[in-house]
């Protein structure tokens, strides 16, 4: 792939193809196959070759989330509802109540936040197989600003009963989750980055929904990360290893239901650190806090994420660095946590 | 449940059908009164306004198999104005979807039957409802599923008139015309009132036909308490398939059948007690004027 083609690929994975969305987390060497939003439509199209139940809906973002790849191969099972997300979600529910498995995809802020009631009332409560796919979650939209960020979606979605909430860490994890979604009962919320996230899994992993995946062993401390933060957490563990600090990294891909056993196992190392591209209130950190508190496990918990604020304007990479959600930032946070623990 | 030959008003069979539907509409109203007493409160008036609509749909129009609630080829019915469920449950029981005796515990702890219908608990409920403005989108999805699966069922959605204030209704209206789902039939129970007063005062919903027509729908208007007219209008719908989505505006009276409740803002939710209960039952049994 020459650089022009490469750029075209990357632009298609962004909201509006702005070069300034590029940042230091991604590189031009990321292959299309390793980019989650890029595989979304293609993987579903592959699955739909053998499964007539699959239908895909979007709300004027077929290019950005690459549901266009599905549309090209299965046009009769693709529905673009225009800029009308509530109708998209509820229409998906009507399809799902009539024998289809419906994937409704748009930016996370415009499904999980704008369509929260439709997800609760029309998808989870009736228990129909709708898969809400929220891409460009967290603050990955960078300087597009807080209207386009979803830093509250995990908190909102995980309080909804009978809704499985999953954050695939990369393209291969997304493939795994989509395959599992064919037989998973009830509704799901699948949270994605903006499709530029580096590879965590070399091949499609054997994930089990509701059960976290240890992606690196370590015995000084456990970092529980989710979605887009799994890769920088692994990089941070590499940085810390050079300093003699052994960090376990766990991919908590399923936020609801949370993997209680893996949280308790992390606590056995004496301290738990959660890392998420989400407001520190309500998401992974809160879910872990509930597990620890419910069982009276008295270990320090550091919930690392975006502070309870609307983030600064800036390119995504600059924001990750500013809020210490890139690898050096996470490494620093872990080091500080360990230092404060040993000084206690 | 559809008849193979259209019944004109002139035939004895047609007259018998109309009489049957009128009787079942009275049954809907009487059951609404009975069940409301069990619950201690009920949406009497919103149900009375659509009693003939529910009866005509379920006892003549819908292609359904009560013994097979999940039959894939069935016509769908979405009660978008979910607060009229109290009138739908007795119809479903009467048709054999479940034991009518189950309704004796209406709304009590653990009952399948709440003020708004739950598809996971009640056989025959095609979709859960209660939050207004959602039903037309649900119906759109069901109609699109018919297209994907190459089935010819229709999807009927019963909306309230006040519900038309919800923006999502118009998102769905736009999309239904865009996708040319001719098998989608929206019926608006134009009973003139929402909770706080007349819709004309709270939020003007008219001109309903012109608004839907501008969105690309084929529209009709009918007296929603005239069973003969309802049969004619519903019988004239085009076959399901590609085409304009169909709107039926049914002019009705909120509280129809009980004089004290008709067009009264005091009775959106209420409870008949003591002699009032007996008086209303007697009034309904004497027949809707």
Q: Could you walk me through the main structural features you see in this protein, from its secondary elements to its overall organization?
A:
- The complex is a heterodimer of chains A (344) and B (289).
- By secondary structure, chain A is of the alpha/beta class.
- Helix content of chain A is 38%, strand content 18%.
- Chain A is built from 13 helices and 12 strands.
- In chain A, helix 2 runs parallel beside helix 8, helix 4 packs parallel to helix 6 and helix 9 (230-241) crosses helix 13.
- Chain A starts with a helix and ends with a helix.
- The relative contact order of chain A is 0.12.
- Helices cover 39% and strands 11% of the residues of chain B.
- Chain B contains 10 helices and 7 strands.
- Chain B has helices spanning 12-39, 44-48, 51-61, 85-95, 135-149, 167-178, 199-202, 208-214, 227-235, 274-285; strands at residues 76-79, 155-160, 184-190, 193-194, 197-198, 218-223, 246-251.
- The chains are: A alpha/beta (344), B alpha/beta (289).
- The interface between A and B is medium-sized, with 30 and 32 residues.
List keywords for this structure.
heterodimer, A: alpha/beta, 7-stranded mixed beta sheet, 13 helices, globular, disordered N terminus, B: 289 residues, alpha/beta, two-stranded antiparallel ribbon, 10 helices, 7 strands
């Amino acid at each position: 792939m020459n650089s022009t083609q490469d750029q075209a690929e990357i632009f298609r994975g962004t909201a509006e193809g702005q070069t300034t969305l590029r940042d230091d987390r991604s590189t031009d060497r990321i292959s299309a196959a390793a980019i989650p939003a890029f595989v979304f439509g293609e993987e579903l199209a592959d699955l739909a070759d053998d499964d007539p139940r699959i239908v895909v809906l979007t709300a004027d973002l077929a290019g950005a989330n690459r549901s266009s790849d599905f549309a090209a191969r299965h046009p009769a099972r693709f529905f673009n509802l225009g800029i009308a997300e509530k109708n998209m979600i509820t229409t998906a529910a009507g399809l799902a109540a009539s024998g289809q498995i419906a994937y409704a995809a748009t930016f996370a802020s415009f499904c999980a936040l704008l369509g929260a009631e439709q997800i609760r009332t029309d998808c989870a409560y009736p228990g129909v197989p709708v898969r809400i796919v929220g891409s460009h979650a967290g603050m990955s939209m960078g300087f597009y600003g807080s209207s386009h960020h979803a830093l509250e979606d995990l908190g909102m979605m995980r309080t909804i009963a009978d809704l499985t909430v999953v954050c695939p860490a990369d393209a291969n994890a997304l493939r795994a989750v989509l395959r599992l979604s064919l037989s998973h009962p009830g509704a799901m919320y699948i949270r994605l980055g903006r499709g530029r996230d580096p590879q965590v899994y070399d091949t499609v992993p054997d994930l089990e929904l509701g059960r976290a995946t240890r992606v690196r062993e370590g015995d000084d401390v456990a970092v529980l990360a989710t979605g887009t933060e799994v890769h920088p957490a692994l990089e941070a563990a590499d940085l810390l290893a050079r300093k003699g600090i052994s960090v376990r990294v766990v991919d908590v891909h399923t936020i609801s239901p949370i993997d209680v056993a893996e949280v308790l196992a992390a606590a056995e190392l004496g301290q738990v650190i959660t890392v998420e591209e989400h407001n520190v209130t309500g998401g992974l950190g809160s879910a872990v806090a509930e597990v620890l508190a419910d069982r009276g496990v008295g270990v320090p918990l550091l919930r690392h994420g975006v502070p309870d604020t609307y983030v600064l304007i800036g390119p995504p990479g600059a924001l990750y660095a500013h809020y210490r959600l890139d690898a050096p930032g996470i490494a620093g946070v872990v080091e500080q946590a360990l230092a404060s623990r040993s000084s206690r | 449940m559809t008849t193979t030959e259209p019944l004109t008003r002139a035939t004895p069979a047609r007259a018998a059908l109309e009489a049957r539907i009128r009787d079942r509409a009275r049954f809907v109203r009487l059951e609404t009164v009975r069940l409301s007493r069990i619950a201690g409160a009920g949406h009497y008036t919103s149900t009375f306004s659509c009693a003939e609509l529910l009866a005509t749909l379920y006892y003549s129009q819908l292609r359904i198999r009560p013994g097979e609630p999940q039959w894939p080829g069935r016509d769908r019915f979405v009660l978008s104005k979910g607060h009229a469920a109290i009138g739908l449950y007795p119809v479903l029981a009467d048709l054999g979807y479940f034991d009518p005796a189950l309704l004796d515990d209406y709304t009590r702890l653990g009952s399948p039957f709440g003020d708004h219908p739950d598809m996971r608990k009640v056989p025959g409920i095609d979709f859960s409802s209660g939050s207004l403005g959602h039903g037309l989108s649900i119906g759109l999805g069901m109609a699109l599923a018919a297209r994907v699966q190459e089935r010819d069922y229709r999807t009927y959605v019963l909306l309230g008139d006040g519900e038309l204030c919800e923006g999502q209704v118009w998102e769905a209206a736009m999309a239904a015309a865009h996708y040319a789902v001719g098998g989608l039939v929206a019926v608006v129970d134009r009973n003139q009132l929402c909770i706080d007063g007349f819709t004309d005062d709270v939020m003007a919903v008219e001109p309903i036909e012109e608004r839907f027509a501008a969105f690309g729908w084929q529209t009709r208007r009918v007296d929603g308490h005239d069973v003969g007219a309802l049969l004619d209008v519903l019988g004239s719908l085009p076959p399901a398939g590609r085409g304009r989505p169909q709107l039926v505006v049914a002019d009705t009276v909120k509280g129809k059948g009980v004089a004290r409740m008709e067009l009264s803002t005091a009775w959106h939710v209420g409870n008949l007690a003591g002699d009032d209960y007996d008086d209303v039952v007697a009034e309904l049994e004497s027949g809707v004027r």
